């Protein structure tokens, strides 16, 4: 008689209950005692129905007594049927279907265009991927202009609206360098995009990333009136910020940006404004950074990311550093949990973003939308995988004048599908990771196709933390998770 076997899954506990994350489907289920017993038993090795009955007490064997806590036959069969239905278990003799290598059909609608309006910056951050030792493009002596022209910006808007297909909403994110160095073109581009979008029956959402050094009253007023989403690159309190985020003469930037950010937060209230923190080697204090940026500066949310750099740089995070970062993320994540259960806002955006993906059952064939629904535009109008590759000939996918090179895009998607990343095939966290950031891989390993093996344990650990937070919220504040259903419905309707 054929045996049953556990399929690929990750078991975790939350709110005093067992849960399971099913890897192929990215589904999350709470387990009752019977299902948990069956799944845990089958995780050790295959068992037949009769063997399960003996091991779990569903039937008595010669010389064995049934304990009061064991399963009866009906409970065992019900658990097997339910676990089979959700594909948590299956017959050992049945082959497991390989993950299909599905490549999105071209033309895939463009949802977000990142417009690099300049490749210049007024800061000289030591760890910067764009201007440091790990840079891909020569922004000082290369072929691209240092500032995007109005003409190229208008062509980029037309490109965006055309490539957005049937989508009624297009997203334009302004980026740099330091974005506000080219504020005149940014301002005119927004006006042009609103006009052109109205002519074709669409809406455009605008956002930008800035280091905040150039914020002044008239710029703040403009951003507020136009409801432009703003993300500020800032690393924390003065001594943290001024370690790496310095001007070219070595002067720290904290005292310059702090009052400007506070004024932006005071005036610009139409959209939440977030901070993006880059974590580096050395002593980390994630909770202190978070508290400073939210409580003392006033940010609505804060997101953290480890520095992208070659492993031999002094600021690169070591294996032990990733362990320390995970520990500190875990502490802040559980603070997020208790605050959310109490019905209050907590701005640790790394948790919320992962919870949303878990709730929606995201299972990625590609780690992000780069080269697919998201593209970056260099200052000369060349179109690249994303903003981090803007201006790189090796990662070009067309131009705003000639459109997307569909053959280059198709080749990229074929080469970067998770089915090609054999190191990822047995990892239970692959539905959310899919090998990790292309730019990180290029910087670490020299090729975008390489999975980011240096932070696999970190990704698995962080995903486990977020699964536990998800399980707790499903029991203690399910209304918080329900908001993601509402957001998904809005996307479908829009």
Describe this structure in words.
The chain starts with a strand and ends with a helix. It is α/β, with parallel strands linked by helices and 494 residues long. The radius of gyration is 25 Å and the shape is globular. Helix 1 crosses helix 3 (73-85), helix 10 runs parallel beside helix 15 (456-476) and helix 15 crosses helix 16 (478-493). A hairpin with a 4-residue loop joins strand 12 (374-377) and strand 13 (382-384). It folds into 2 domains: 4-91, Alpha-Beta Complex (Outer Surface Protein A, domain 3), CATH 3.90.930; 112-410, Alpha-Beta Barrel (TIM Barrel). The chain has 16 helices and 15 strands. It has helices spanning 33-44, 49-56, 73-85, 150-163, 183-199, 217-225, 238-244, 254-267, 286-297, 319-341, 349-359, 406-416, 430-433, 438-445, 456-476, 478-493, and strands spanning 4-6, 9-14, 17-22, 27-30, 89-91, 112-116, 169-175, 203-210, 229-233, 274-279, 301-306, 374-377, 382-384, 396-399, 403-404. The strands form 3 sheets. Strands 11-10-9-8-7-6-12-13-14-15 form a 10-stranded mixed beta sheet. The chain has a 3-stranded antiparallel beta sheet with strand order 2-3-4, with helices on one face.
């Amino acid at each position: 008689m054929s045996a049953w076997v556990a399929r690929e899954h990750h078991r975790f506990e939350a709110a005093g209950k067992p849960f399971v994350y099913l890897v192929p489907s990215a589904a999350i289920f709470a387990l009752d005692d019977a299902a948990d017993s069956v799944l845990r038993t089958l995780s050790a090795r295959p068992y037949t129905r009769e063997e399960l009955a003996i091991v779990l007490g569903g039937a008595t064997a010669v010389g064995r007594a049934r304990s009061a806590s064991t399963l009866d036959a009906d409970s065992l069969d019900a658990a097997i049927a339910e676990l089979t239905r959700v594909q948590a278990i299956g017959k050992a003799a049945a082959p497991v279907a390989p993950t299909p290598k599905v490549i999105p059909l071209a033309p895939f609608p463009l949802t977000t265009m990142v417009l690099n309006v300049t490749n210049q910056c007024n800061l000289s951050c030591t760890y910067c991927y764009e201007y440091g030792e790990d840079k891909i493009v020569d922004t000082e002596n290369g072929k691209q202009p240092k500032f995007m022209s109005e003409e190229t910006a208008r062509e980029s808007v037309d490109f965006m609206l055309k490539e957005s297909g049937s989508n009624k909403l297009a997203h334009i994110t302004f980026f740099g360098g330091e974005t506000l160095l080219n504020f005149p073109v940014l301002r005119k581009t927004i006006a042009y995009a609103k006009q052109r979008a109205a002519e074709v029956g669409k809406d455009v959402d605008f956002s930008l990333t800035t280091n905040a050094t150039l914020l002044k009253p008239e710029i703040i007023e403009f951003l507020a009136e136009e409801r432009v989403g703003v993300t500020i690159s800032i690393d924390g309190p003065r001594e943290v910020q001024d370690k790496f985020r310095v001007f070219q003469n070595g002067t720290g930037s904290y005292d310059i940006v702090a009052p400007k950010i506070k004024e932006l937060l005071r005036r610009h209230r139409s959209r939440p404004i977030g901070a993006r923190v880059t974590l580096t080697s050395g002593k980390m204090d994630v909770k202190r950074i978070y508290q400073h940026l939210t409580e003392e500066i006033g940010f609505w949310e804060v997101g953290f990311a480890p520095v992208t750099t070659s492993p031999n740089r002094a600021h690169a995070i070591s294996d032990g550093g990733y362990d320390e970062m995970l520990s500190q993320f875990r502490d802040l994540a559980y603070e997020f949990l208790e605050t959310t259960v109490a019905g209050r806002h907590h701005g640790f955006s790394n948790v919320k973003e992962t919870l949303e993906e878990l709730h929606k059952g995201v299972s990625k064939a590609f780690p992000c939308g780069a080269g697919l629904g998201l593209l970056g535009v260099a200052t000369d109008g060349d179109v690249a995988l994303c903003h981090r590759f803007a201006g790189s000939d090796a990662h070009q996918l067309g131009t705003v004048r000639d459109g997307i090179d569909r053959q280059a895009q198709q080749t990229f998607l074929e080469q970067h599908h998770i089915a090609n990343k054999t190191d990822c095939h047995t990892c239970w966290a692959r539905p959310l990771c899919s090998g990790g950031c292309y730019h990180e891989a290029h910087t670490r390993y020299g090729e975008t196709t390489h999975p980011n093996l240096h932070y696999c344990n970190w990704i698995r650990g962080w995903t486990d933390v977020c699964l536990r937070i998800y399980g707790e919220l499903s029991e203690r504040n399910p209304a918080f998770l329900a908001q993601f259903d509402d957001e998904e419905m809005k996307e479908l309707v829009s």
